[in-house]
Amino acid sequence: MGFNSRSATKITLIYFVFSAFWIFGSDTLLLLFSSDVNEFQYISLIKGTLFIFISSVIIYFLVKHETLIIKTANLNIKNLSSLDYITGLYNREKYLEDISDTTKLVDNKSIIVIDINGLKVINEVYSNEEGDEVLLYLTSLLKNTFNNRGKIYRFGGDEFVLILNESDVKKLDKDVNVLKESVLKQKNIKPIFTISIGYCTST
Fold it and tell me: What pTM was computed for the model?
């Protein structure tokens, strides 16, 4: 992504104002305080050299600032393209990107696959909005149970995948049971839903 028209216009205006002030303002002051032609030419030479130097510094920092803005915008766009628009979790594309890098698939990892039973029926019988509420509710449970221990992906319509940076089987069994119990004790959400879970570890 290059500079947009607004960035280019801003840099041009700032440079124009500075140039106009420097050239006309400094010449006016020189004419007021110097009547010697040689002195005027000498000071003008120094003034021109300073103008080139200061202009270069200003342009450098302006371009550097705009480049930083563009890099930040590109990073934000890339991050957004990796997220599921409903849940805010990582999406299928991000999952495929992560597992394609074999250097990330090292030992001491756990993978959990979760499926919401009957989500399609919920969408058809109730509404897509109710289905989205189910997705968001499960997302909150997953974050509460496994947050900061790996990555959570919404792999498909009703499928979630978690890649955890640990391989303690006993702890994983306990956390999965906690998640199952949390789903069974769902509050403030209709319709009631269930999940299916499969998981494995590497050591």
Answer: 0.63
